[in-house]
Amino acid sequence: MAFVEVNSLFKSYDDSGFQGKYVLNDINFKVEENEFFCVIGHSGCGKSTLLNLLAGFIKPDKGEIYVNGKLVKKPSSQQGVVFQDHALFPWYNVIENVAFGPKIAGKKDAYDIALRLIKMVGLEGYEKKFPNSLSGGMAQRVGIARALASNPELLLMDEPLGALDAMTREKMRMEILKIWKQTKKTVVFITHSIAEAVYLADRVIVLKDGKIFLNQKIEMERPRQIHSDQFLKYTKMLEKVLFDSEKLIVE
């Protein structure tokens, strides 16, 4: 069994439940352990709905999601989530934000865990700073550290770089890959950026109109050169699927 399995998943926000109203319509895919898995698509295609289902925040109308062999029924500390707006508690400083999950879980070493993760994300010395004094990139690093503090099996990232400027976004891509390599977590990363998906992912799926139009492995060594022929080949492939009306599914 794959680390994440999504089987015949349907989700509608319409009480009538007609097939034409499904936000997600018969979604099936697998994510292997330690894989960096990207989901791309236009706004409104169902990306965030899919992530909320994986996190257990909402329930599917039909279908099942398994994480490490366990059926996802509700939110769990085993699914860590990083949001686009980082969602830090403004009344807590950095170390308090990161230590929050372990403290709730009753871990006596919550602050030791937080200090280690703060160092890992490159924010040593900022432990006592509050979110409103941090740059966007720094706040997202705190969000990632907080998500990792409960040692989740699966890290879910919902367009975490979407609100950042271009230079910060590029730097954060490299930081996220470094953190992923250090932690060896399984990652599902939502983005609307094709280049970002090719740069980060082991595998990419393209969502359109609530369905999977492409499931593509990215076979490139890291670090990836964005101007290389291979990088541009994958970019053009994803662009064609994303902007073409013809359905294409690749396993």
TrEMBL record:
This is Nitrate ABC transporter ATP-binding protein. Keywords: ATP-binding, Nucleotide-binding, Transport. It comes from Sporolactobacillus putidus. Signal peptide: none annotated. Pfam families: ABC_tran. It comes from the Bacteria. One of its GO terms (molecular function) is ATP binding. Residues 4-234 form the ABC transporter domain. InterPro entries: AAA+_ATPase, ABC_transporter-like_ATP-bd, ABC_transporter-like_CS, ABC_transporter_ATP-bind, P-loop_NTPase. PROSITE patterns: ABC_TRANSPORTER_1, ABC_TRANSPORTER_2.
